[in-house]
Design a protein that fits this description.
With 364 residues, the chain is α/β, with parallel strands linked by helices. It has three domains: 3-86, Arc Repressor Mutant, subunit A; 90-225, Rhodanese-like domain (Oxidized Rhodanese, domain 1); 228-351, Rhodanese-like domain (Oxidized Rhodanese, domain 1, 3-Layer(aba) Sandwich), CATH 3.40.250. It has helices at residues 3-11, 15-27, 32-39, 43-55, 93-98, 100-103, 132-135, 147-156, 174-185, 197-203, 233-239, 252-256, 297-306, 323-335, 347-351, and strands at residues 30-31, 59-63, 71-75, 90-91, 110-114, 128-129, 164-168, 191-194, 230-231, 245-248, 280-281, 315-318, 341-344. The strands form three sheets. Strands 4-8-7-5-6 form a five-stranded parallel sheet. Strands 9-13-12-10-11 form a five-stranded parallel sheet. The chain has a three-stranded antiparallel sheet with strand order 1-3-2. The longest helix is centred in the N-terminal third of the chain and has 13 residues, at 15-27. The radius of gyration is 21 Å and the shape is globular.
């Protein structure tokens, strides 16, 4: 489109649409999530602005190169090039394999992290260990590491605030998703998940080792916490009287009140069993396919639509100690780009031990 035609098309659009157009012009192709972070506008405003720009033919869109679940927006006539692929929140086993030699170097720019207690049994070469439940949560899995503790801990793993951090774990990436969420809570810029985790890596014949890499301790300076993505019990109590969707991602037996702790997990029991009243129930494993990888965007979007979990309604997710709910938070916030999603890390181990907290049992 010629410059004078572009100016004419922009003239009658709202300021937010003009701002989004200028951002795409300055920064190049971006996803909705990246645009929201860059412009500091709400995702709803960005969506509206993109619709306005699309209606007058000023932008194009296509699946993002780094992750087909996300959409890449660009000025009409431009291409989503290779540079855009560097902002991925989800990487493939092949992506990691191509960079194994880089991960094995003591270079803080790129760190691979295994986020569980099975590290000694064999890990991807070059990976450092972060045992989330043992080291970065408080007693009984309730509460997370404070800013000072987080800084010291990840710094000792050779990570700086400028590092590209790629995380994986066993158990379909439950602990990896929790650590991803924790990095995002302290506003780390470039953190990613290995899709399918250790399970998919080994299924594809990826190498493992029991050798610990030598890493140089780094100085890590965390940003102030992003409280928008963390829910507290006060938020749950408030949500019960507001238009907020609360999603319970635990097993059906836990949700019905037949179990006070997760099946096949050595986690503490809660005092009572059941679920928070009025919650939607979507078992965390429903977002994962037979290989332990995330289902495609169409299937994920349909899953949450069917359970009446809407993109423009504030959503809080919870499980027993916050690790399974982190997977669903990742899907809603990072893959489907819902407006406002928070993880209640206190989860059932906190709510189920409160004396006066309302609890429901039985089927949905």
């Amino acid at each position: 489109m010629a410059e004078n035609q572009t100016d004419a098309a922009l003239e009658d659009l709202p300021p937010s649409s003009k701002f989004i157009y200028k951002t795409l012009d300055d920064e190049g192709p971006m996803t909705l999530k990246a645009l929201t972070e860059e412009t500091l506008l709400s995702s709803r405003t960005v969506r509206y602005g993109l619709d306005q720009l699309d209606d007058v033919g000023l932008i194009d869109s296509s699946p993002a190169l780094h992750d087909g679940r996300q959409t890449c927006y660009r000025l009409a006539g431009e291409a989503c090039g290779e540079d855009e692929s560097e902002s991925s929140v989800l990487v493939s086993p092949e992506w990691v394999e191509e960079r194994l030699s880089e991960f094995e170097q003591d270079d803080p720019e790129l760190r691979l992290v295994e986020a569980d207690a099975e590290y000694e049994d064999g890990h991807i070469p070059g990976a450092v260990q972060v045992d989330v439940l043992a080291d970065l949560v408080d007693v009984d899995g309730c509460g997370i590491a404070d800013k000072h503790c987080f800084e010291n801990y990840v710094g000792s793993r050779g990570i700086t605030e400028e590092s590209t951090v790629v995380i994986y774990s066993t158990d379909e990436n439950q602990y990896a998703a929790y650590l991803y969420w924790l990095f995002k809570y302290y506003r780390h810029t470039d953190v990613r998940l290995l899709d399918g985790g250790k399970r998919r890596w080994t299924e594809l014949g990826g190498p493992t080792t029991t050798d610990r890499p030598t890493v140089t301790t780094q100085e890590y300076t965390a940003h102030s916490a992003d409280e928008r993505i963390r829910a507290y019990r006060s938020d749950i109590k408030s949500a019960l009287a507001r238009d907020v969707t609360i999603v319970d991602v635990r097993s059906p037996a836990e949700y019905r009140g037949e179990q006070t702790q997760p099946p096949n997990k050595n986690l503490p029991e809660a005092r009572t069993a059941g679920h928070i009243p009025g919650t939607a129930h979507i078992t965390w494993s429903e977002v994962i396919d037979e290989h332990g990888q995330f289902k495609d965007e169409t299937a994920l979007a349909q899953l949450f639509r069917d359970r009446e979990v809407q993109p423009d309604t504030e959503t809080i997710v919870y499980c027993h100690v916050g690790e399974r709910s982190s997977i669903v938070w990742f899907v809603l916030s990072e893959l489907l780009e819902y407006d406002v999603v928070s993880n209640y890390d206190g989860s059932w181990i906190e709510w189920g031990n409160l004396i006066d907290a309302p609890v429901e049992t039985g089927e949905e």
